[in-house]
Write a structure and sequence with these properties.
Helix content is 80%, strand content 0%. By secondary structure, the chain is mostly helical. 24% of the residues are buried.
Length: 174
């Protein structure tokens, strides 16, 4: 910790404010942020001053993080429902030969899972779309088409691809 303190003391005020505001993007611990705040305090910058100048928190990052977490949650539910759809589709074809009751249960589960899957797929898409607006990346109609055309049959691939892509973009938010 003292190593960080010494390094931070050598930074100018503007860079220290950047550390306070964007410590998560740099991979710093909250204690590094607290040290930077205390050094700025010694230099005459109160926390209130940092707050008023917009250097205390990165609101854009916070909002993007909320959208990213919501995307992950909705995508995870859609992923589970996608797996349920796969299982019920396979079981329906297996049960269709021998058991009438099991086939109807499987078809009912499949219908409910399909509706919920599309609901959570759309919710995750909306989260992703808002996320890209926050990061000022053009998602465009190609992204929408790719999301729905590839997202449905290849959801396993798309789930991991978009999750990793958004995780990388979180590092770039200033």
């Amino acid at each position: 910790m003292t190593d960080y303190s010494e390094r931070l003391k050598h930074l100018d005020d503007k860079k220290l404010m950047d550390v306070v505001k964007n410590y998560r993007q740099y991979g710093y611990d909250i204690s590094v942020r607290a040290t930077a705040i205390s050094i700025l305090g010694e230099r005459g910058f109160s926390e209130e001053t940092l707050e008023l100048t917009g250097n205390m928190d990165n609101k854009t990052y916070d909002y993007a993080e909320t959208l990213y977490n919501s995307f992950k949650r909705n995508s995870k539910v859609a992923f589970i429902l996608f797996c349920v759809l796969l299982i019920t589709n396979i079981s329906t074809s297996i049960f269709a030969v021998s058991a009438n009751y099991l086939t109807s249960v499987s078809v009912s589960i499949n219908a409910i899972a399909t509706i919920l899957y599309f609901l959570f797929l759309i919710k995750s898409f909306l989260n992703q779309n808002k996320f890209y607006k926050v990061t000022n990346d053009d998602y465009g109609t190609e992204g929408v088409l790719m999301y729905f055309l590839l997202g449905m049959p290849l959801y396993i691939v798309m789930y991991f691809y978009f999750g990793n892509q958004m995780k990388e973009k979180m590092k770039d938010i200033q």
